[in-house]
Structure formats: C-alpha cells, structure tokens
Amino acid sequence: MDGATGAAGCGPAPVSYEFYQDGYGGALAAEALAEALPAAVRCVGSLTGARDVRDEWDGDVADAWRRAVCAAADAYAEYGEGRVGGFSIGSFSVTNYRDEGTTGSEVAREAALAELSFTGLVFAGVR
Questions:
Q1: Half-sphere exposure at residue 90, Cβ-oriented, CA atoms within 13 angstroms
Q2: Residue 11 phi, psi dihedral angles, 5° rounding
Q3: Is the Cβ–Cβ distance between 35 and 7 less than 8 Å?
Q4: Regarding beta strands 92-95 and 86-89, do their DSSP bridges make them parallel or antiparallel, or are they unpaired?
Q5: DSSP calls for the chain
Q6: Is the separation of the CB atoms in 62 and 53 below 8 Å?
C-alpha cells in the first residue's frame, strides 16, 4: 500500500502502511489506519507545526514524526476522538477507561508526544 492515499483518496498519505507495520510495529488493518490518519496528522501537526515530513529533517527526526502519527492513529482507532469510555449490550460490557473525562484526542496527543520527545519538533512556547 505504498503511496496510498489518505481518507477518501484525498491525496498521498504522509505515512505508508509499510512504515506503520515495519517501522512502527502497528497492528491495524490498512483500512483502519487510513480512516485514523487524518485525525492523527491533525494531532501531530498541531504539536509540531508540520503535516508532513520536511526535507530539512534528518532521518531520525522524520521517523520520529512518522512514529508519532502512527501512535496517534492507534489511539484514534481504539478510542475515537471523543470521550474515552465503554459500552454495554445487555449483560455484556466493554470499558476502555483511562481517566474520567479523558478524550481520545488527549490519549492520541499523549502517545504522539512520547514519540516526539527529544526531537526538538514540539512547540514549547506560550500560545
């Protein structure tokens, strides 16, 4: 799926499925990754100011940016963008609570920040 497109064929994906599987070690199906990528790129873009790898970055920084997108995509695929919670159907229930009031976006941001540490890509000033 190299050169794959983002959601709904909106252009090239900033992270290939091959990198997601081999460079990051992700386990999502290609379709699930493609569905989560737009939110993941928005998340990492808000942290770094970049929505794609930049030519001036060295390979380690570029890979860290890609891993951050993968980590955020995993979080969005599992939790969505809204509140982290659970559901019940009859006596069957599933919960994936982390902290009360946590959102999938916060989980994704936390995961992306862990991948971006020590790269110098994360904005640390006053907004």
A1: 1
A2: 130, 175
A3: yes
A4: antiparallel
A5: -TT-B-GGG-SB-SS-HHIIIIII-----HHHHHHHHHHHHHHHHHHHS-SS--TTS-HHHHHHHHHHHHHHHHHHHHH-SSB--EEEETTEEEE--SSTT-BHHHHHHHHHHHHHTTSS-S--S--
A6: yes
By C-alpha distance, which of 19, 124, 26 is closest to 76? 26
Give CA–CA dist 62/15, Å, rounded.
10
Q: Which residue has the tokens 């990198």?
A: 19
21 in Cβ contact with 5 (< 8 Å): no
> What pTM, to 2 d.p., does this model score?
0.77
C-beta of residue 103 within 8 angstroms of C-beta of residue 83 = yes
Whether the CA torsion 16, 115, 48, 39 is positive or negative: it is positive
The predicted-structure confidence for 14-48, as pLDDT tens digits, reads as follows: 899 999 999 999 999 999 999 999 999 999 999 99
**How distant, in Å, are the alpha carbons of 1, 17, 22, 97 from that of 25?**
16, 10, 5, 24
Among residues 96, 66, 70, which one has the least CA distance to residue 82? 96
